[in-house]
């Protein structure tokens, strides 16, 4: 089952899964016509947020977003005063879980660092956050795949009562517009003098602590173990008075440096391969492919990479999934919406390729995927399987010119 959210809404999708007592994974990706066509833009505008919901016999057992870090879990652990240094490598090394966050939660539980009741509460909050976000969507797409359940299971959440509750909260949230628009906004104290004359010292002290412009509404809700609507409604009167304001925290504008790569291109004698990853991986790829006649263009900065790829027109693209500014899924999705890169092989690289990552890679249009570390043979086989030679590209161009057609 798959489609667009303008054809069927999330609530109906969840009802179908519940009625059919389905077991599997629901992937939801938000988009807008504006965000899907811009390339050299602010980081916040480039984001294509997505979510995963896991089901067992028509009930939700876990839900998460596209953040591959452990930050969300650490926020909730802070509420329970669990002081533990989260190590992503530890959870990944377990090799038993489809998601890093879920695996780490179970590891903490098995080591008696957290109690079962705390773990259940955290999972419920994960589900709550996810449903709040996807029930708020107006544009997006989804895919539901039947499959084996995420194991082991700690708890399950009935869909119908939760959807009723969340739908009501989403409706109440809309009443806070336009002063409060998103859980990702940051409360910022702007009139301390007025606050001091109107509120108690204790209240002012709390607002000074939390409304620092660096803690989002969502983070605040996690720290306090409260739902996002309760937190937003609590600060709304102060925002309405103008004592606080909620801001979006954007990455500072940086001028994308357009490097002169003409010497590297030396068109008409080599097939050019773009590698969007850290410097070490790019050097490994170059060391493997250069002796076989391929020119590797190293692009360690994902934001600059997008701008340069449209100039380079590589015949093959390797792209790391896990990057902070712009991840591999987002880059792949953006390139696939350009006719120039509709059929260019795009291979996504990852330290671990589980069911979730493979599903999403397929949805965004990746040609194939490759697990790091890879061998020389594995990489060469992929390149030789998918790469289009310069000679064949030139032949196609000549054919198009002769036929009077314009190359895409």
List keywords for this structure.
alpha/beta; 408 residues; disordered C terminus; 12 strands; 18 helices; 5-stranded parallel β-sheet; 5-stranded antiparallel β-sheet; Rossmann fold; 3 domains
Summarize the structure.
The protein has 18 helices and twelve strands. Helix 6 (116-135) crosses helix 7 (159-174) and helix 10 (217-224) packs across helix 11. The model is unreliable at 33-46, 250-269 and 389-408 (pLDDT under 50).
How would you describe this structure to a colleague?
The chain has 408 residues and is of the alpha/beta class. The protein folds into 3 domains: 2-174, no CATH class; 186-247; 262-403, Response regulator (Rossmann fold), CATH 3.40.50.2300. It is 46% helix and 16% strand. The protein has helices spanning 10-19, 43-46, 71-79, 88-94, 100-110, 116-135, 159-174, 192-198, 201-210, 217-224, 228-241, 262-265, 279-289, 302-312, 328-336, 355-364, 376-386, 390-403, and strands at residues 2-4, 24-30, 50-56, 59-65, 140-146, 186-189, 244-247, 271-276, 294-298, 316-320, 346-350, 368-371. It has a 5-stranded antiparallel β-sheet. It has a 5-stranded parallel β-sheet with strand order 9-8-10-11-12, with helices on both faces. A two-stranded antiparallel sheet has the order 6-7. α3 (71-79) crosses α10, α6 (116-135) packs across α7 (159-174) and α10 (217-224) crosses α11 (228-241). The protein is globular. The protein starts with a strand and ends in a 5-residue tail after the last helix.
């Amino acid at each position: 089952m798959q489609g667009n959210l303008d054809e069927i809404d999330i609530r109906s999708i969840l009802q179908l899964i519940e009625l059919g007592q389905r077991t599997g994974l629901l992937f939801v990706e938000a988009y807008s016509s504006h965000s899907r066509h811009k390339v050299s833009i602010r980081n916040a505008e480039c984001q294509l947020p997505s979510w995963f919901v896991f089901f067992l016999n028509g009930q939700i057992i876990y839900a998460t977003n596209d953040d591959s870090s452990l930050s969300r879990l650490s926020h909730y652990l802070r509420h329970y005063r669990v002081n533990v240094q989260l190590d992503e490598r530890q959870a990944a090394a377990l090799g038993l879980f489809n998601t890093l966050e879920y695996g780490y939660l179970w590891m903490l539980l098995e080591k008696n660092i957290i109690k079962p009741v705390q773990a259940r509460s955290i999972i419920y909050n994960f589900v709550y956050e996810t449903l709040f976000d996807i029930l708020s969507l107006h544009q997006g797409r989804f895919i539901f795949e039947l499959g084996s359940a995420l194991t082991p299971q700690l708890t399950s959440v009935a869909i119908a009562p939760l959807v009723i509750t969340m739908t009501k909260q989403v409706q109440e949230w809309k009443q806070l517009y336009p002063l409060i628009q998103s859980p990702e906004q940051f409360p910022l104290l702007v009139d301390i003098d007025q606050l001091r004359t109107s509120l108690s010292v204790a209240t002012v002290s709390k607002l000074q602590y939390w409304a620092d412009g660096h803690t989002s509404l969502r983070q605040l809700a996690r720290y306090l173990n409260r739902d996002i609507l309760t937190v937003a409604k609590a600060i709304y009167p102060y925002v309405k008075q103008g004592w606080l304001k909620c801001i979006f925290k954007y990455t500072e504008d940086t001028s994308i440096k357009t490097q002169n790569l003409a010497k590297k291109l030396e068109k008409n004698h080599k097939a050019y391969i773009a590698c969007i990853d850290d410097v070490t991986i790019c050097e490994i790829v170059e060391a493997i492919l250069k002796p076989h006649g391929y020119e590797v263009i190293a692009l360690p900065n994902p934001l600059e990479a997008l701008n340069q790829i449209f100039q380079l027109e590589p015949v093959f693209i390797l792209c790391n999934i896990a990057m902070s500014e712009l991840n591999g899924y987002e880059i792949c999705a953006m390139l696939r919406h350009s006719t120039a890169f509709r059929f260019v092989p795009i291979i996504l690289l990852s330290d671990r390729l589980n069911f979730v990552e493979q599903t999403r890679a397929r949805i965004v249009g990746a040609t194939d995927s490759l697990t790091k570390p890879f061998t020389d043979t594995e990489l060469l086989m992929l390149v030789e399987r998918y790469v289009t030679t310069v000679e064949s590209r030139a032949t196609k161009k000549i054919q198009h010119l002769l036929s009077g057609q314009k190359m895409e």
